[in-house]
Amino acid sequence: xxxxxxxxxxxxxxxxxxxxxxxxxxxxxxxxxxxxxxxxxxxxxxxxxxxxxxxxxxxxxxxxxxxxxxxxxxxxxxxxxxxxxxxxxxxxxxxxxxxxxxxxxxxxxxxxxxxxxxxxxxxxxxxxxxxxxxxxxxxxxxxxxxxxxxxxxxxxxxxxxxxxxxxxxxxxxxxxxxxxxxxxxxxxxxxxxxxxxxxxxxxxxxxxxxxxxxxxx
Length: 217
Fold this sequence. Notes:
Blueprint: H1 11-20, E1 26-28, H2 36-45, E2 47-53, H3 62-72, E3 78-82, H4 88-97, E4 102-104, H5 119-129, E5 133-137, H6 152-164, E6 169-171, H7 186-196, H8 200-215
Parallel strand pairs: 1-2, 2-3, 3-4, 4-5, 5-6
Helix pairs in contact: 4-5
């Protein structure tokens, strides 16, 4: 996944895809005026989605989200949105009106973790139930107030997501854990999935079947 630090220069990400080979997939960051030729180049390189960082100091407006989704829809890409989940009810209709599938980052990234019964979290569950929205179970350390090793406040949300709609859950390590003074071990992040999704069949969906469908493996 293209990090913010590289802006619209996706060459590091596409170099990584080339190193991994044809079994790899990536997510790029593209401007609203990206050319058709550049989109074709990125698609050939293995890119299958456009990342839109909607937190402070990001590049995009919500009008940009609409524009970019329209640009990438013909490639069967999705848009990957990172936002504060507490604002999901305000953009719920906008997300559903997009012509693409949508991936929401980091368990919804509720900057102040909420209870699974909170109205803003219920909006996320409604989005998953449409079949067009996916959630990444990842990076609990980015918003947790209870902290390592179990990140219980965010883990409660991850467990609720995996239970409610395992067919729309993905997992990500968030390696190399940008912005963390003491980065967690990626293996420890994977181990948390044993708690979030204790059923082996559910983990098969999250780790294998769902990404194969979404990313076009």
